[in-house]
Design brief:
elongated; four-stranded antiparallel sheet; about 35% helix; Rossmann fold; alpha/beta; about 400 residues; 10 helices; binds zinc ion
């Protein structure tokens, strides 16, 4: 009778408590020599067992089918399978007599109904364990994102807080690096630089290097990375989780840019498609009404003045000047206008002729009205306390 030793450990959370590959190997070799078992080969595999594409595992089973060995030595049952296909296959091979024995320290399985049903139950339990872990992880991340904690890959200038407890890790600025990334955004905001020029400044002049992670990192930034970064809404405090779901969460950490600054950069890059979080609220809309009785609504406008033909055009979701087709990213420091204007919804009177008003004109008018309606100091204190409790400030 000949044996294969099969050691397996994945990097996933379900295998965190499992012995390392070298430790499994030395334990099992010792077990084999203590029990005078003839080992023909040792397999070490770092792979998850809830998928079926394990290269070494499949190769080993193929060799068992060719009768190179009839016994299998493992650290525990979960090393063999955490999916129903591989688990079923192994039991079927016991039925066929191809696998005569499966051993782990302290236990042995052979072709008996009891052993096989016990083994099947072990595979099922380890599948359940890994399924549960997956569900728990997803549930944990969802809650995290709802509390405003960032979920996703690390962003340049930030890293996950190594001191925060597991499950509460959020991104924090990397001292020194954060400032360089912010400088890159500020340079972009001036409109005087193209992305490759900023890349050269960042890497060569300011000495940016990616954060070290073991032997990785410590490298200059790539141009494509910088483009991706300049399109990443995280920098103005929004992240999407799960990715592609359209669920945007407001991040509670140290945000680098205002939303206006982020949008301005998108305008400068000629970003074609700009997904907008739905949470944008405008002041006053619920407080004021048009003279015709209809509600007031607000809109944000972004316009770019073409540097070639001086045409002023709405630049959200537009890559080029509609008149002369000059691409926005090729314009030298174009003027970008951003304003919020309020207008009648014309719900009550569709023929209302009232014009729109810009926020800059509206605000002083509201201030003027509020100046005449004072509030008592007592009420002010109460309101401030209340706002504080609600975290409105
Ligand atoms: Zn009106
Ligand atoms: Zn033009």
């Amino acid at each position: 009778m000949k044996y294969f030793i099969y050691c397996r450990k994945s990097s996933e959370s379900e295998d965190k408590q499992v012995l390392s590959l070298p430790a499994q190997k030395s334990e099992l070799l010792k077990y084999a020599s203590d029990n005078k078992l003839d080992v023909v080969d040792v397999y070490e595999e770092s792979a998850s067992a809830h998928v079926t594409e394990r290269k070494k595992f499949n190769e080993m089973l193929a060799r068992i089918e060719k009768k190179e060995a009839g016994g299998l030595i493992v650290w525990d049952e979960s090393r063999i399978a955490r999916n129903s296909f591989d688990g079923g296959r192994v039991i079927y091979m016991i039925d066929l007599g191809q696998i005569v024995e499966i051993r782990k320290p302290g236990k042995m399985y052979t072709n008996t109904p009891d052993d096989k049903s016990w083994l099947a139950m072990c595979f099922m339990m380890s599948k359940k364990e890994s399924d549960d872990k997956g569900v728990n992880v997803r549930r944990g991340l969802k809650e995290k994102s709802q509390q405003g904690m960032y979920v996703g890959s690390q962003q340049p200038g930030y890293r996950y807080d190594p001191l925060a407890p597991q499950g509460e890790k959020d991104l924090i600025p990397i001292p020194g690096t954060y400032e360089l990334i912010e400088k890159a955004w500020r340079a972009m905001l001036t409109g005087k630089y193209r992305v490759p020029q900023i890349l050269a400044l960042l890497n060569n002049e300011w000495g940016y290097r990616t954060p070290l992670r073991g032997k990785l990192g410590g490298k200059p930034m790539h141009l494509s990375e910088l483009y991706v970064m300049f399109h990443t809404r995280f920098y103005c405090g929004w992240f999407e989780y799960p990715t592609g779901s359209g669920n945007w969460h407001k991040w509670r950490g140290k945000v680098m840019l205002t939303e206006e600054e982020f949008t301005r950069v998108q305008m400068l890059l000629g970003a074609k498609y700009l997904p907008k979080p739905k949470h944008k609220t405008f002041a006053f809309t619920c407080l004021i009404r048009c003279v015709c009785g209809s509600a007031i609504t607000a809109e944000e406008k972004w316009q770019t003045i073409c540097t070639i033909c001086h045409n002023k055009f709405s630049s959200l979701n537009r890559e080029a000047c509609p008149k002369c087709n000059t691409r926005v990213e090729n314009m030298d420091n174009p003027t970008i206008l951003n304003y919020i204007y309020y207008h009648c919804t014309r719900k009550i009177n569709p023929d209302c002729k009232e014009k729109s008003v810009r926020l800059e004109k509206l605000e002083p008018q509201v201030d003027e009205i509020l100046r005449h309606s004072g509030i008592s100091d007592e009420f002010k204190q109460w309101a401030l306390k209340y706002f504080n409790e609600l975290n409105l400030f």
